[in-house]
Amino acid sequence: MTKEKLYIYDTTLRDGAQTEGVDFSIHDKKKILAALDLFGVDYIEGGWPGANPTDTEFFRNDHSLRSANLIAFGMTKKTENSVENDPMLSQLVNSKCSSVCIFSKSWDFHVDVALGITHEQNLTNINETTKYIVKCGKECMFAAEHFFDGFKSNPRYALSCLKAAYDNGASWIILADTNGGTLPHEIFEIVSETTRHIPGKNLGIHTHNDTGNAVANSLAAVQAGVRQVQGTINGLGERCGNANLISLIPTFLLKKDFSDKFELNVKRDDLKKLTQCSRLLDDILNREPNRHLPYVGACAFSHKGGIHASAVQKNPKTYEHINPHDVGNCRTIVVSGQSGKSNIMSRLISIGIPVKENDTKIRMLVDEVKHRESIGYSYDGADASFELLARRILGTSTSSILLHRYEVSVRKKNTGEIISSVKAEIDVDGDKIMCQGEGNGPVNALENAIRSDSRYYENFKDFSLVDNKVKTFNTSTGAITRVHLRSTDTKGTTWITVGVSPNIIDSYLNALVESLAYKLLKDRVTDNLSGLSNISS
Length: 537
Ligand SMILES: [Zn+2]
Fold this sequence. Notes:
With 537 residues, this protein is of the alpha/beta class. The chain folds into three domains: 4-266, TIM Barrel (Alpha-Beta Barrel); 302-382, no CATH class; 401-536, Double Stranded RNA Binding Domain (2-Layer Sandwich), CATH 3.30.160. Helices cover 38% and strands 22% of the residues. The chain has an eight-stranded parallel barrel with strand order 2-3-4-5-6-7-8-9, surrounded by eight helices. A hairpin with a 2-residue loop joins β16 (464-475) and β17. It is elongated. 43% of the residues are buried. The model is unreliable at 529-537 (pLDDT under 50). The protein binds zinc ion (ZN).
């Protein structure tokens, strides 16, 4: 059976850029454009030339793309201007893009209230703008803003807006749920009705996530007949975001109802770049990746419950809807006080530590994890600390750093500057080191002190702390503070360690020392065994 083509249209660089706190530079835009092109997205909306200096310059640049079509976005001409004399429109027709997407209102309420023009004038603006863009030799797409609200209010008028563009040569008519309040069954019904007036092969869907249904609404629209789907990486977008292409694309390729029927320019093999593509945006925005994101989150294939973990060992299908490797993600077995021996065995295997089922040391490790969690440790997520503990107990440790004693002082100068100093005695692989350092806080001071030892300079020069999470609570032995530290290196690998103590500074310093020990271990394993492929990243 011949499959129908389903087109993917990314608007991260335009609609996504309208998100609070997001301000892409030209360099960021180029990076995202290149990644989306390599990934296989059909259309990439680059921005709105003329609306801001970054977008204007972006469209002045030449972009050589492998297969994607770069789109310039803008609006229909203003009522008082002719098409030839509309400054925004001239930016579009003079851009280097061969395709242009224009938008206008298709909700009578918006035409009355927001535009303050007659319904007829709005239709004329759509009609003449489309005709002009096509006459200038460009492909024209028309985005019908508020189409679903418009259809509910005045279906005849909403459809006449679409027809004004379609009948004058628009190749795609995009149905937008701009306020994001429409539900999947309504989308299905309205799109079905719309396909009686405009062929589905010329219809696109653009949804927002205000009811948490942007992805579901896009799927409903495809089932009702549209053949172009718009969205953004990670669902970036103002308010609650746009439809998340990182969820939609694998759904189209891996779920039978869609994969049997449709063909995408993104191929099954390209899907392996999905997690990387999602993380690239987080990296550019300097955001922590959402660990719970479908398909690509660090927790999307993590198994904590003992029953789940042991079943996944027998057959991953028991608790995984797809193979994580298909989307560039990986399986994680979480270790915690609730874990049985099977979780710990699975985790050890996945980090490359050889284990034997009947090894008595495994029981010791399980008991030690349970004991430590009872006094406040948590290894759920702190994979690096777990690995250090496991290697210590199983006798496969290849690095250790122990903090014997230290002295911390904090002083505030009359300039307001606060300086922390640390003097410490540590033991690195049996070498006793006396070190001292200063920093903006005790953790930074200890980090600088350890880095200052020339023997370890190479190991720690690309080490940095990303963030931390602190929790203070009561145990049977009194109040304790638990610190989780997330660290990274220049290769982009991240790892988490845990430190516990009744004293918050001690908790931080213990977590830091664990983190540095893990960095040493990682460097050595990479050098010697080229294993350690399951560091959480
Ligand atoms: Zn939008």
